[in-house]
Amino acid sequence: MLLDKFFGFLSNNIGIDLGTANTAVYMQGKGIVMYEPSIVAIDVKTRKVLAVGKEAKEMVGKTPENIQAIRPLRDGVITDFEVTQVMLSYFIKRALGSTLFKPKPRVVIGVPTGITPVEKRAVIDAAKSAGAREVFLIAEPMAAAIGADLPVDEPLGNMVVDIGGGTTEIAVISLAGIVVSNSLRIAGDEMNEAIIQYIKRQFHILIGEQTAEKIKIELGSAVMEDEEKSMDIRGRDMTGLPRTIKITNHHITEALEDTINSIINAIRVTLERTPPELAADIADRGIVLAGGGSLLNNMDRRIQLETGIKAFYCDEPLIAVARGVGKILDNLELISRISME
Q1: 65-102 pLDDT, tens digit each
Q2: Where in the chain is the domain with CATH 3.30.420.40?
Q3: Contact by Cβ (8 Å): 45, 55
Q4: Are the C-beta atoms of 142 and 152 separated by less than 8 Å?
Q5: N or C: which end of the chain has fewer CB within 10 A?
Q6: Rg (Cα) of the chain, in Å, rounded?
Q7: Which class is domain 188-255?
Q8: Cβ neighbours of residue 185 under 8 Å, at least 6 residues apart?
């Protein structure tokens, strides 16, 4: 017990938002120290790791046969344990830096509310293998609410919609607990895939994931805009030759409609299941948006139009979960109350 306290005192504890698209790392006393793509490039012949994070992302869709750029998480959960372990180890070691004496850190990780017991164990084992002393899992919407400075431990209804890369996490929080939640494996990645399929269907052009992401950021919108915007994109036509086409924001809004509708329906279902007193609080206080996927143009407006409740962004939505897990690193009492173990 004394030894644990000694290590706890010396440790640089770490909060991690282990995202499908990006991983954010919060270090006690330093804040957000890393925000990198959740991608690892490996040589498939030797299994040697060639790059992690930003460097690996630049290789996506551009690698020779012997090199693979792997995203070890899909829909918010680990699909490649070995590669996740390598990635976590890289991020943890980089965050800690090189010191002569490195006690193992306490690690708090934000995970989807719909995570299964097997998936929980995989995350904990990967973090421990990567060097964690102890690991706590916190539901992403709870972490986002804490990161957004919402009064989560008061008897008030707080609604958070966290749209990440792999999952959309919706939760109603009161008295430091999740009262109602919905975990949808439809989010930013699904938006990219919808754009890829739409362009293939409508223009007979094949584009990659990075191009789709760029289109989503520049032209994507959750509502049909009056003003038309366009951009030229390059892809491969059905004969295998490179081709350039012009697409507009109206095309992309149409491409995203089904994905947006799925998210809106999940919000509606969550509201319908919310106790009346808490629903009244949400009607007064509004719906808080977090996560990179929520930054799609006019997402706040669309949610407000569909639900009749004001929707607004928390400060720095991209790092809300990481900031939330970071804020509670030294609060073991709160961690024990809200952890998913």
Answers
A1: 899 999 998 888 888 888 888 888 888 888 887 655 66
A2: 2-40+74-143+321-338, 155-186+264-314
A3: no
A4: yes
A5: N
A6: 21
A7: alpha beta
A8: 75, 76, 114, 166, 167
